[in-house]
Amino acid sequence: MSPVLKAGSRPPWVGLAAAVWVQIAAGNAYTFTLYSPLLKSVLGLNQLQLSILGVANDIGESVGLLPGLACNKFPPWAVLLVGSACSFLGYGVIWLAASQTVANLPYWLLFITLCIATNSNAWFGTAVLVTNMRNFPLSRGTVAGILKGYVGLSAAVYTVIYSLVLHKSSSNLLLFLSIGISVLSLAMMYFVRPCTPTSEEDSSVNIHFIFTQAFSVVLAIYLLTTTIIDDTVSLSDAVSYSLVAILIILLLSPLAIPVKMTFFPSNPKDNSQDGNATQTDPLLTPSSSTNNLGSFYENEDVSDVEFLLAIGEGAIKQKKRPRRGEDFKFREALVKADFWLLWVVYFFGVGTGVTVLNNLSQIGVSLGDSNTTLLLSLLSFCNFVGRLGSGVVSEHFVRTRTIPRTVWMTVAHLLMIVAYLLYASGLSGTLYVATALLGICYGVHYSIVVPAASELFGLKHFGVIYSFMGLGNPLGAIVFSALLAGQVYDAEAAKQGGGSTCLGPECFRLTFFVLAGVCGLGAILSVILSIRIRPVYQMLYASGSFRLPQSSSH
């Protein structure tokens, strides 16, 4: 049954404004760097054990097959409700262990509860991303860049709250993640809803997106500036709370669009657009080629014998597999070479990047800088720049020159090689440069894979396809963080006297050399992928704007 949609021009923008807050909640996995030192000291963990918990952090964040399936079966509010429950339960148990309210919780239980806690990200992110991609189908790259950008900024938001409100208490941060995120999700559930998408380009839509992007940039600069100020001078509670109040106002800025549309409405081209009638989502209805097959396909319970007899009698044409650019079922996408090329390229990018993110605190200490909050804030800011910027840039070039979005993943891989070599060098002043460069490239991979997957394999089953792509993150954490970085770090620490702390660039040097090599291979594969899918983009964007393929019967 096709979902019932909210009609009118304002509801999609209300949903986008609410999605911004949900995406901030969906970045809670980035806080692992802030509370991992507490877990290591209180629970007496070594670096390998801490890296394995980092893997749990990434597994929960990225395993989104269930949320992907749920998005096609249940309304967004139900998906967000599950995410709220995961956050409350998971972080609640971790807080009990870290605060020693409950002593001697087994290690395996912490692993499981951390998976549950960060799995809230998958439920939050999938719900708002799928809903808004369907609400704005003609601006997929822009929408993906904005929403993924706010996820990138979430680490800086949490860092500001951690420093200014929670006074750098990791225990209080865990309690905030358990209660605060759940409450926020419950408050946003009603506003994130499927709406009737527009069927043609509208200049006012582009203006609204530019406004949203501009204020997100202002927010990013404000967050970085606030973190630097807090790091350099001592702030009173009154000033700290005032800075947080400004942060909240900036996060509310996307709400100005539906408010403006309410008090200063434009003249609609079609009066029916502003009515309260409900409509059926055209993206989830059969395509024109499917309609040519008649009502025979409408009954999914028809037997194979009847189907074959109908083909033999000429009553219907046998349905052929979709072409790239059309709606694929998940199992149809799995047998396509381009699907696996895109997955591997994404896996090499985010898998190596998350290794740095999970070990950022230890990398900083090993290179003589223990200021985790400033490093994380810088990484968050640059992550945001990469996510938002790649959405804008790729959207421009795909419309003007039909350049595949995956070209920018190639560029990101090449720049990541530079970042990893800078880390490995251990030269003075390179830590922050490498972190900034890595943050940008990490954001590019996250942002580009969203519209690229939807353009190659369609929006109808996008939730499941995107969630499967997200598995590259936890698998990368297992291979590159736990099995590589954790082992190398502990081995070097043992050489320095057997303690749990390693000092010097050699602690991660071998790891960075391997990561650089992996990104080199990723760059080669992304070039191959871009060449293969160029004809798809020439078909989809030949007129300078996105258009759906007309038929699949080729």
Break the fold down into its secondary structure elements and pairings.
Elements: E1 4-5, H1 11-25, H2 32-43, H3 47-62, H4 65-73, H5 76-98, H6 107-135, H7 140-165, H8 170-188, H9 203-232, H10 237-251, H11 256-263, E2 279-280, H12 288-291, H13 304-312, H14 330-334, H15 337-358, H16 360-366, H17 372-400, H18 407-425, H19 430-457, H20 462-469, H21 472-495, H22 509-540
Antiparallel strand pairs: 1-2
Q: Your description of this structure?
A:
Helices cover 70% and strands 1% of the residues. Strands 1-2 form a two-stranded antiparallel ribbon. The chain has helices spanning 11-25, 32-43, 47-62, 65-73, 76-98, 107-135, 140-165, 170-188, 203-232, 237-251, 256-263, 288-291, 304-312, 330-334, 337-358, 360-366, 372-400, 407-425, 430-457, 462-469, 472-495, 509-540, and strands at 4-5, 279-280.
The run of helices and strands is EHHHHHHHHHHHEHHHHHHHHHHH
Could you give the count of β-strands?
2
- The total of helices stands at 22
> Strand count, sense and closure of the main sheet?
2 strands, antiparallel
Sequence stretches where pLDDT stays below 50 over 5 or more residues? 268-302, 550-554
Mean pLDDT, as a whole number? 83
Helical fraction: over 70%
- Share in β-strands: under 5%
Question: Which class of secondary structure composition applies to the elements?
Answer: mainly alpha
Note the gap between the termini.
28 Å
Radius of gyration: 24 Å
Cross-sheet strand order for the largest sheet: 1-2
Coarse morphology:
globular
